[in-house]
Design brief:
Largest sheet: 6 strands, mixed
Oligomer: single chain
Strand content: 35-45%
Distance between the termini: 28 Å
Strand order of the largest sheet: 1-5-6-2-3-4
Radius of gyration: 13 Å
Structural class: alpha+beta
Helix content: 10-25%
Length: about 90
């Protein structure tokens, strides 16, 4: 299990996560909204300028559109390599 926190929406996966994705030849994952338990099928996109950089595509933007982010909101991600499930929790700024 890998745990990471991203504070900016269009950042690549952290290096340790990208290495695991490359090693396991993952091209997709299921994003799980921890709040609503909604599932989003997402492509894992390789940056054309650097094959070691990976991003979440497709379903990621559906997830973003379903949320009401405020300045200072954070996301917590937990990715399980074996099941290809990415659990996402939105932390609202208080």
């Amino acid at each position: 299990m890998l745990i990471c926190i991203w504070l900016i929406f269009l950042q690549p996966f952290p290096k340790n996560v990208s290495e695991k994705l490359i090693m396991n030849d993952h091209s997709s994952l299921t994003l799980v909204d921890e709040e609503t338990e909604t599932l989003y099928e997402c492509a894992i996109v390789t940056d054309p300028r650097d094959e070691n950089l990976r991003y979440i595509g497709d379903g990621w933007f559906e997830y973003i559109a379903s949320k009401k982010f405020a300045v200072g909101s954070s996301l917590i991600f937990i990715y399980t390599i074996e099941s290809r499930m990415l659990y996402v929790t939105l932390i609202e700024r208080t």
